[in-house]
Amino acid sequence: KKSEQELKDEEMELFTKYYMEWKGGRKSGNTSYTNIPRFYYRLPAEDEVLLQKLREESRAVFLQRKSRELLDNEELQNLWFLLDKHQTSPMIGEEAMINYENFLKVGEKAGTKCKQFFTAKIFAKLLHNDPYGRISIMQFFNYVMRKG
């Protein structure tokens, strides 16, 4: 059996050995830049017609995809109708409120474009000191209008 001191000495030796291998295994100088992903690409020059066309086309496709994700007027009206139909009483003054259970029901009926807004995280973000654990329908609708 090894004594406690011998075990500590052996541990220190191993630590020093592995530390030196780790430290010595690195190339001299700072090479951290090789691990950083590239995030800037220069704009194509005027004479690089193909690259300019590619950039324009990819931008157009991106904008079309984002545009399809937006709610149109009819979908917004439908969302407002569903929220109003599922409001949870009692009202606070003029403000209509909805609890989490009804919030999820509306989320199921609202359609696929709206699904992204019916999460627990968004509900919790809009929850402000309501004794019944509800959020304002108007605040939620305004949130959807801003984010969607």
Automatic annotation (TrEMBL):
Database matches in InterPro entries: PPP2R3C
GO CC annotation terms, alphabetical: centrosome; cytoplasm; spindle
Superkingdom as given in the UniProt entry: Eukaryota
Predominant cellular place of this UniProt entry's protein: cytoplasm
GO BP annotations, alphabetical order: B cell homeostasis; cortical cytoskeleton organization; microtubule cytoskeleton organization; positive regulation of B cell differentiation; regulation of dephosphorylation; T cell homeostasis
Keyword tags: Cytoplasm
Compartments where located: Cytoplasm
Designated name of the protein: P2R3C phosphatase
UniProt organism field: Aegotheles bennettii
Gene assigned in the entry: Ppp2r3c
